[in-house]
Every structure is written in structure tokens, then in C-alpha cells.
Amino acid sequence: MGDMTTTYGTLNGKVALVTGGSRGIGAATALRLAREGADVAVTYVHGEEGASDVVRRVEALGRRGVALRADSADAGEAAGAVARTAETLGGLDVLVNNAGVGVLGPLEELSLAEVDRVLAVNVRGVFLASQAAASRMRSGGRIITIGSCMAQRVPGPGGVLYATSKSALVGLTKALARELGARGITANVVHPGPVDTDMNPADGPFAAGQAAMTALGRFGAVDEVASVVAYLAGAEYVTGAEFAVDGGHAA
């Protein structure tokens, strides 16, 4: 796997927060940012064991790590995780909005509770964390949000709620870029395609169909997404942009 960054240590002295960092793309991203030199906080809801393991691995790399229980569906906790990170690690330079929920199903079967939960986590939580981070970040701050390939192309039925929530992040990102550009803070969104995680394993019941929708005919690995996030954490002249890490799902 080729990395977009050639040298480690690009984030020396920086503090990063990765929401939903106990497993999958979030955990891989937290470790990659630590390898680049950042101290890293991760939030979790149920995955305390996974989050503790990520912190141990961050510390093994010689960085400071902290696990914070914070439910992005809770407005206070979504913003509070940013404040707690800044207090614990002495500031905040990089926010990775990774926490998300995926609810797929026929339009007529989606309940109001599901609509509210998906929008609360995938949109409101990201908005509030970004708002809180923007108030604390100095010049050189980075807001990187994990979207979805379904914000660019919805290949079949069942994705109305999920695609709605992830598409909102494109508008959020572009507007943040305009709002914060004068302060030297960038905002970008990364759209993963099907990626091999606990939530969506490459050998799962729907995997073959998902892989077939990509140009490369395979699932991605979490490290392939994490490397793009790490690149954006260091990039200075990239903002308001969408990055598809989707194997050609949108091609």
C-alpha cells in the first residue's frame, strides 16, 4: 500500500481528536496520526476495550493517548469531547469527525427514531464538534470529516437516510472551509467506499455486491483511508475538498 506521505513526523507537537476511534477506520486513523507525531484522543460509546487498546498502541509509539467516553448523538458530549481533549492534551490541532452510524433499509420502514438518531450522530454531532473545535484551533488547524461514497453515488435502494446524512457533510465541509480559511484552518471530507471493518466485513453477506460496484473489484483496507486522512492533516493548501477513497465506486 503506497502512502501519500513519505516521511513520518509531519505532525510532531500536534494534538488530534478522532471521534469513534475504538475500531475500524477511526482506530487506524488514530494510530496513523500518532505515527506522524501527534498526541491523540479517541472517543467511544461501547468500545471501551478497543479504545483502551488504541491508547496503549499510541503510547507505545511514544505519544500521549487518551480515551474519552462520548456519545456523538448527545449534543453536549459531541462538543464536550473537544473541550476535554484540549484540556487533557493542551490544545487541539486536528479534528477527525469519524463517528457515524449506518442505517440502511426501505424508505417506508425507516422510523422517526432512526431518522433522528442518524441525523443526530452523522450530522448534528459532526457540526457541533466542528463548531467547538473551530473556537479552539489556532492557524494550521485541520477539520477532516469521514463522509461516504454514498454521498457521491447511491448505487441502489435502501440508502435514503444514510446518503442524506453523509451528503450533508459535503455542504458542511465547503462552508467550514470558507468560514475558517482566513484563520488558516482547513476543512476537507473523505469518502470511503466499502472498507473491510467489523461493521462491514469483506467476507460479509453483502460484500460481493459492494466489491463489484468498485472499479478495482475489492474492498479497501482501513489503512488506505487513514493514509489520506494523515495526508490532509499535514496539507496546507487543500481545503473545501472531497476525497474519494472508494476503489472507483463513483467512477
Counting DSSP E segments of at least 2 residues, the number of strands comes to 7
Rg, nearest Å: 17 Å
Counting DSSP H or I runs of 4 or more residues, the number of helices is 7
- Give the overall pLDDT as a whole number: 95
| Separation of the first and last Cα atoms | 21 Å
SSE arrangement, N to C: EHEHEHEHEHEHHE
How do the strands line up in the largest sheet? 3-2-1-4-5-6-7
Q: What spatial form do the alpha-carbon principal axes imply?
A: globular
* Low-confidence blocks of residues: 1-6
Strand content: 5-15%
Coarse structural class? alpha/beta
Helix content: 40-55%
Largest sheet: 7 strands, parallel
Polypeptide structure, described:
By secondary structure, this protein is of the alpha/beta class. Helix content is 42%, strand content 14%. It has helices spanning 24-35, 48-60, 75-89, 112-136, 160-180, 207-212, 222-234; strands at residues 15-18, 39-44, 65-69, 94-97, 142-146, 186-192, 242-245. It has a 7-stranded parallel beta sheet, with helices on both faces. α2 links the parallel β2 (39-44) and β3. α1 packs across α7 (222-234) and α3 (75-89) packs parallel to α4.
